[in-house]
Input
Amino acid sequence: MQHISDDLYRQMLGVMHTVKDLNAASAVLGWDQETYMPEGSGAARAEQISTLDTLAHTELTSTRSRDLVEKVREIDGDDVRSRLVKLFIKEYDKASKLPESLVRETSKACALAQESWKKAKSEKRFDIFSADLEHLIGLKSQAAECYGYAENRYDALLDLFEPGITVNQLRPIFSRLREGTDNVLKAIRSSQVEVSSGLLMQQFDCDRQVEFARFISKCIGFDTKTGRVDISVHPFCTSFAQTDVRLTTRVFENDIRSCLFGLIHETGHGMYEQGVSSELARTFGSDGSSMGIHESQSLFWENIIARSEEFWQWAMPLMKDYFPQQLSGCSSFDFYKAINTIEPSLIRIESDEVTYNVHIIIRFEIEEALINGRMSVGEIPTVWNAKMKEYLGIEPTNDAEGCLQDIHWSFGGFGYFPSYTLGKLYAAMLRKAILRDVPSVTDHIRRGEFSTILQWLRDNIHVHGKIYTPNELIQKVSGEALSERDFLEYVKAKTQRVYDVSFAE
Ligand code: ZN
Output
């Protein structure tokens, strides 16, 4: 086994520090753009961000980096240093494998596609978007060829979001997940219980909502000495360092879910960022393991904790202090049922925990076929609508509520969607693992004590940053390989409780 010398390691850290500092500075500007920047400052800000991003790319692909990578390519080992070397090589390869002309053309194509996508969506006409989309898919397929892959061209794009995950690994998991979802929907159709989200759609004062959401975010463990919460159009989490994490949420007066669950979700992301080992600060190991693992942290808090019955046994009296009129006759069980309504929706982001995955599976199947040239762009609307009908029993009446609903394709984010569902599967696997390690965890939740849970996540997930791939990390924590089994068990148990139905074994 060959280890890296102290001198080379210091040089490598030097490059990583510069790149990460430039990334962080760019992220500060991006955060400001979404929160406090005056409306008319967009053009100047875009130039500033682009300059910083170009500087970071130049540093990463410099001859200094190339020489370093050549010297450390044979380094082999399992310790943190050796793994950082592997991440360094991977980032260098990713940044230098694409010819500059392709990078430039792709960024131009994305700008055009975003404009035509917006127009197409507002006019409900896919044909306005299709030529730009086709161009972008061509460029992304070229990029996949440059990155390289073993079996499936789509794997090269998946790897950008979920390192090491492949189409062959996902296909059987997604097929069993669809089957399990069908069983849940069948059971719900046989239920006599009336479950509705009506009580969540009353009038709730916006300032009170934000106050309550901030309170809950702090209770579950977000450290406001090293992070802050603001308001933006779309909720997000961004971090400039483990000691500087920014969250946002949004508020709707007539729906209490958006602000509260939005902030709990982002808090999950934020606590992950706050928990990465300081040893990894300013290195390529300081991010989360993958998009999906990151999403598992937000979904763990949003769904597994904050949509549980125990959580509302604790939180309901507290929430009633904020909204005594609206919630006067509402029990914690009423609220628990209302926030766990399951009903197929045409819109992905409005979907429940269970049918959400079907939206992802449809996008995955379409993307994989497009990138491998087995499907043409013109076929997308027909295929989309047919799959919605077959998988969920509902059909869009126009493309805006069908294949034009998401922004992702317009910015070239092919390979991104599966991470959302993987996040749900990882979160359910973590739920099972924490119940094994801390059997009293539900009592903790019922008492509003979250520190044991957060510490468990810190020790098992957060501290490792990006040092392990998602497959490695989930195996290490749960003792098992990625699977849909724990998720299906979890949603079946919840469905039984909410809808008072039973499942045949
Ligand atoms: Zn998220």
